[in-house]
UniProtKB/TrEMBL annotation, chains A, B, C, D:
Presence of the UniProt keyword Membrane in the record: no
Residue stretches making up the DAHP synthase ferredoxin-like domain: 1-64
Name of the featured protein: Phospho-2-dehydro-3-deoxyheptonate aldolase
Keyword Transferase: yes
Keywords: Transferase
Amino acid sequence: MKVGSPEAEINRISQELSEQGLTPEPIVGKHKVVLGLVGETAALDPRQIQEISPWIEEVLRVEKPFKRASREYRHGEAGEVVVSTPDGAVHFGEQHPVVLVAGPCSVENEEMIVETARRVKAAGAKFLRGGAYKPRTSPYSFQGHGESALGLLAAAREASGLGIITEVMDTADVDKISEVADVVQVGARNMQNFSLLKKVGAQDKPVLLKRGMSATIDEWLMAAEYVLAGGNPNVILCERGVRGFDRKYARNTLDLSVLPVLRSLTHLPIMIDPSHGTGWFEYVPSMAKAAIAAGADSLMIEVHPNPAKALSDGPQSLTPDRFDSLVQEMAVIGKAVGRWHEPAMAIA
Amino acid sequence: MKVGSPEAEINRISQELSEQGLTPEPIVGKHKVVLGLVGETAALDPRQIQEISPWIEEVLRVEKPFKRASREYRHGEAGEVVVSTPDGAVHFGEQHPVVLVAGPCSVENEEMIVETARRVKAAGAKFLRGGAYKPRTSPYSFQGHGESALGLLAAAREASGLGIITEVMDTADVDKISEVADVVQVGARNMQNFSLLKKVGAQDKPVLLKRGMSATIDEWLMAAEYVLAGGNPNVILCERGVRGFDRKYARNTLDLSVLPVLRSLTHLPIMIDPSHGTGWFEYVPSMAKAAIAAGADSLMIEVHPNPAKALSDGPQSLTPDRFDSLVQEMAVIGKAVGRWHEPAMAIA
Amino acid sequence: MKVGSPEAEINRISQELSEQGLTPEPIVGKHKVVLGLVGETAALDPRQIQEISPWIEEVLRVEKPFKRASREYRHGEAGEVVVSTPDGAVHFGEQHPVVLVAGPCSVENEEMIVETARRVKAAGAKFLRGGAYKPRTSPYSFQGHGESALGLLAAAREASGLGIITEVMDTADVDKISEVADVVQVGARNMQNFSLLKKVGAQDKPVLLKRGMSATIDEWLMAAEYVLAGGNPNVILCERGVRGFDRKYARNTLDLSVLPVLRSLTHLPIMIDPSHGTGWFEYVPSMAKAAIAAGADSLMIEVHPNPAKALSDGPQSLTPDRFDSLVQEMAVIGKAVGRWHEPAMAIA
Amino acid sequence: MKVGSPEAEINRISQELSEQGLTPEPIVGKHKVVLGLVGETAALDPRQIQEISPWIEEVLRVEKPFKRASREYRHGEAGEVVVSTPDGAVHFGEQHPVVLVAGPCSVENEEMIVETARRVKAAGAKFLRGGAYKPRTSPYSFQGHGESALGLLAAAREASGLGIITEVMDTADVDKISEVADVVQVGARNMQNFSLLKKVGAQDKPVLLKRGMSATIDEWLMAAEYVLAGGNPNVILCERGVRGFDRKYARNTLDLSVLPVLRSLTHLPIMIDPSHGTGWFEYVPSMAKAAIAAGADSLMIEVHPNPAKALSDGPQSLTPDRFDSLVQEMAVIGKAVGRWHEPAMAIA
């Protein structure tokens, strides 16, 4: 409250807040009165409360707006998301080795997707990424092969044993995509497509939630909260670069500081996508290694058998050979921080 | 090309580009060679071309990526969007008076929406805005009354004669919303929901396309291009504030410079929303007047009979009385720039 | 304090804060305890207080960090800055007509600066802007003529009767610049050059303080506070566009919403610079008119006799003829809002 | 040039550009003409050239604006900056171990600075950082002890053998600071204080150039170019976080992608400051490790004997004990990537 607020006004405000189901508790100081609000404040708009009286100086939120996504929700413990794949369960989480997800931006044909799947699996990936439905800035760009690409992903899954991660862009496509995918991806442009979030929250497959182009940490966790509140407890968060003021060299600003920040706020596993995060394959290796050193639970990396001919995002894709080398570099860091999966020795 | 690029390499690159259907034309200078590309370049990714050879120094786009949205598409002329309403056709465009759109953030009940419609019509509005489906950051916030609110909008339309503008958030809702709405709104969070853009491009009602939170001008016009390419020529662009680095006072940064920029790039009409653009009703009047002085074709302003009790966005809503005063202030500017509708005198 | 904070810990924290000269006042609720802090909090770092105990959930600032710059400092009244010029005192402030400042980016030679001064004065300007010392991104660009240009500004002042506004970039130059200038400008890149702010705060000429490229409103007002606290009460704030994520068309994002925001926070007069704010002369007129409609106290506009040959910033400069037309357009808006200076009729 | 540009106009433009000392070379295609410009283009403003004719569609820069800072300037080789310290020469650069710089935000008294120097040296640091002159947002905050603190830094240097890095804020202070400092720091707020850049370019001590709050990579390298062009070849670049849209948790966005980007553009060594970059000590370790994994040449980390009592930036400071642990964690990554200094064994 502003200095000099009349007592009658403070009483009136308290009364009004009580009617809204809140419990206002006044603190009377020498110069100022502060009203603490206890109760269900998650859905309140601080600006709205300020409107109640011109004597209110400022309304400040102390509680976090998210609940199920919060670390407190699991009493401070890390969570994990377990995904079943043809080759067995894969665990995403702080207590587990870094999970590698790799593959092309879009599924182009059976040969390329099966071949890519085999190569990235041999290098150590557990999941194949690949777009059937592609969000493209231009209506004149290749939009993905759609439903037929889902069949190709299923074939690649069977051929390789990898789990499948693919994006859904339309509520009408959720069912057919979640039939094929092991993890359903919501892309950056749809992070606040609340209809879509509700729909993927109402199905069973784990959800990979990419951070929106200019989403705050709170907005991102609230988007996760939509899925969690919808009944689906399995959400993986993926940082893929935010919009910055300088896009001359890197296309986006990969915000690796989300790693320690999210760790303290949420129990959800965290994936980093350095391919979209930088937009240029030369920048991917150093950012991938940085992500592991900083504590990422998973990496998503674009790999294409022939980036120069890719129908989308070629410039940020690694060749399978470059991916092989990168995995070796990442392994050095992963082992150093104790987060690398040592393959069992083959016994002759 | 970089200094010292071998001729054989330049020939190889030209060959490869020709195979992609482009016509490369080399310019040979003393120090450098530049390759000009002529042809269908709208869907090309400059980064991809750069991948063709390490001798390529930089790939720069000269052509604009949008076509139907461009001013050239109408040979430099301004366009107009004509919307039929119960009270007759309303024209949005540079050659017409400023069109006022007003109403609450969300439709709460019949009494409030009909009452608001009557008040804003009396003040000079031609359209009623009001959300049936609401995009809310929190899953625990009021999400709009949905389908039942569409009925209330229809009632308010009939009672007042105003046209109706309301938001669609899900491809599954497009049909039922376009039955009731005179203009279908795509919100900022869905500006790059390409499934939704295609769907509203395939129906007949004009589309109000809000600018995404951090959308560049090109991305925004490409989103409009999705609707235009889908067969719907009636798109109105609406600036509603972009994400900035300082949100302590104004919630967003209202980017009024889009007015002269868009004028030179596109023939589409331009609306300004100072209510979302600032997030605080005290800031609305000065930004509304600025918008008219800068050449806006239309204004969208939130009005609520009792902002302090609004179920959403109360703090940025004007009361009907404040809206009355604002219209008078806007009229002063509107008349000064020759863009104000003088109501016909009533004859006794 | 976090839920469940031990009483002993709360006492310990209160004790520690008391030792720092603050008066902590606890509010005890059913679930939480809030500690209100009263006292000299302007210099406190909220993060520092949080460090005192892991039981502190969040530290929130309620008081504004600026004092002399605040509107409350003048009991809610608007301030004014009065500048003496050869032609008499000019008043900047809410209660006065809009003051026009015009001139070239940099002073190139005597003829051009005197000629420009005469033309902009004839059009209605009260001040001539022109750089002697120029901040340039590249060390290889023209850096301004320096001291010799100060002499040319003095000549233009005498010839035209206009006041002079010119930029200071180095503490070592403050004295010689304030001898010639009627208003000393601190540029955007030096907004947090605190040595310079202290130096201009210790001299007598009014200070024009441009907003930094990515300065928040609070940081800007704190920079003004440096000048005010240094003993110079005459500060004019100038918005010149902030850094945004899209610089393809407009170079900066002109943030006109500072007009209503600053009005509520400070008594200082506000100038808008649409030339730097957009970076392109075609965009200047609509933004200049918008600024007046939104309540600007002053406009700064770049005018150059031959923009195509200008040594700096030609593309954002108007020719004197275009400036003449713009003044007529601005006058229409200025008169409409009652902020235009009507020149006295010449009597034959 | 736009489609349909008249030949006479193209000739006129070429003529005009020739007069400006450039060599325009036209490329004539079927639909378009492109004019290539060869010559001294570093100081040209593309917008200015566009002004020459309305037939010019767009002016695009192909050459980089920086020269001495460019990697090409050293024929693609990495550079190094060698700094002499009491304990011998320290090398900053890609071919050398990671250099640790540590110390408090500001020098508070002799005991604390000498004690901190001893502790960070024991942990492995080669340089002591510590502010004598402090840039503070508020004029009411502690501004540093100034000249007397320089004496304390000299004492700490002698006592510990560490090199000294301290900030200069005023051209008038350059001489006395460079007498004491082994590396002179230009802070983020002064990155485009061109007077200061010229002054530090004209003295002999190596310069640590922090990136401005919202500086693009090109602007940052151009600021370095000022120092290099002034005759001082020893510049170290330091990323310290840029301004983002979400400052609720991390204060700035630490942009680690500058590591691979700068590597390809410049030969200058690169330092990362995760303390300012995040603003919170808990986030420092993961970002410090990420920086090393991504290829940083040096780390600057704030260490204070008692952060809770620090006169500035306490919350982002580590205690000496925490710094000890962090160095061990960093060593694991540093060794993994082959960039760690193995101390020689002491012989009994």
